[in-house]
Amino acid sequence: MGGVLGDLGTLLPLMAALILINGLDVTLVLAGAGIFYIVSGLYFRIPMPVQPLKAVSAIAISQGLSASVIGAAGLLMGGILLFLSLTNLIFGVVKLFPKVVVRGIQLSIGLILLRKGVELIFNEQIFINGAQTSLTPGQFPIGIVLAILALAVFVLFKFKFSKQNQGYPASLALLTFGLGVGAIFGPIPSFGNLGPSSTELVLPAAADFWIALTVLVIPQLPLTQGNAVVGTWDTSRVYFEEQAKRVNPRSVTSSMGLANIIVGLLGAMPMCHGSGGLTAHYKLGARTGGANLMIGGLLLTGGLLLGYSSFSFIFIIPLAVLGVLLAIVGIYHMLIIRDLTQTSELAVAGSVAVATYVFSNLA
Question: Per-residue pLDDT tens for 149-163?
Fold first, then answer.
């Protein structure tokens, strides 16, 4: 179960911000992500991650772009990815990313995840929606204290209790700790608005496509090729070997292309796969596509049956706990570079990592 929820630290903050700031429909976002998770698990047969397109999401959130512009970005990304897949041009694109470049991108992704985790730990808010809590920070760094306790729980279950608790991964213990803290000290969940939200489809206008192309798609596309396509393909081979035989540049590109055309038409959240998310699921315990069925089912149920009330449950997990989870995933992802042994390879990978980190629009 820990591996099932392993990518929440990446998924939840961006998903919540797109709903709360940009006005995306909660039912469409949750159900769209849930269906994409389920279909990906059934086809790829490994815990294939589903994440927001992070450059698109980050720019859209920071600029307060409308749901119609975000939908246009999904349609454009989906169309471009499908074109690359159907024409086999994606294999030419892959050649632009040799192993050392991919390792550099993966190293930078790990650094960015680690940085984001630290930001969540030091965030002045304790919960993602800024809800009041019986934990009164004042001048007391309560987030740091929660992070230390969460890390202690993870380390104990990862190393001290690993043999006794093989069926209870350290990540699940960490999330259980977070839910426990939230249940005791956090906002009381409200389930007054059950059922799907009153969905209204918002089709993009012509002007939305130009804004989406210039502001969102152009910054996102090259990084999607490096991380979401080549990085995911490479990471799947590192962790799953023959089990990941269905994962290749064309299948990953087609998967993301189809998904983004559908969510673009619905005005939901543009999505991708990602090497960091794959590391999160694997290192925190997931081993098969069954993990996708579980998290996908939870998201789909949340969108259709709980609607806005589903976030009441999510919001009780302290940001510091999500930050620790994200930081752990980042460290694991950086360690993929260990198979580079030549100084020249490490120099190239390090240069790529620095460049990608500086321009930290993550695919």
Answer: 999 998 888 887 655
Rounded-to-integer distance, Cα 202 and Cα 3, Å? 35
- Which residues on neighbouring strands pair with residue 271, listed in sequence order? 52
In a domain, 3, yes or no: no
- Residue % of the chain over a pLDDT of 70: 85
Does any domain span residue 58?
A: yes
* CA gap 92, 84 in Å, rounded: 9
* Radius of gyration for the chain, computed over Cα atoms and rounded to the nearest angstrom: 20
Comparing 19 with 29, the larger pLDDT belongs to 29
Side chain identity at 359, as an amino acid letter? F
Please tell me which residue, 52 or 172, carries the higher pLDDT value. 52
Sign of CA dihedral 152, 158, 163, 165: positive
Q: Are 203 and 71 in contact (CB under 8 A)?
A: yes
DSSP string, 324-359: HHHHHHHHHHHGGGGG--SHHHHHHHHHHHHHHHHT
- Whether 1 is covered by a domain: the verdict is no
pLDDT digits (tens, 9 = 90+) for 273-304: 988 889 888 877 788 999 999 999 999 998 89
Res 9: pLDDT: 61
Structural domain span for residue 22: 8-358
Tell me whether residue 340 is in a domain.
yes
Q: What is the DSSP letter of 204?
A: P
What is the rounded distance in angstroms from the CA atom of residue 97 to the CA atom of residue 44? 22
Least confident among 134-138, 206-210, 352-356? 134-138
Which pLDDT score is estimated for 56?
85
Number of structural domains the chain divides into = 1
Print burial letters for 292-320: b (CB count within 10 Å at least 16), e (below 16): bbbbbebbbebbbebbbbbbbbbbbbbbb
> Long-range contact list for 301-306, CB < 8 A, 24+ apart?
301/34, 302/30, 302/34, 303/26, 303/27, 303/28, 303/29, 303/30, 303/31, 303/32, 303/34, 303/196, 304/27, 304/31, 304/196, 305/194, 305/195, 305/196, 306/191, 306/194, 306/195
What pLDDT score was predicted for residue 48? 94
Give the tokens for residue 55: 């450059």
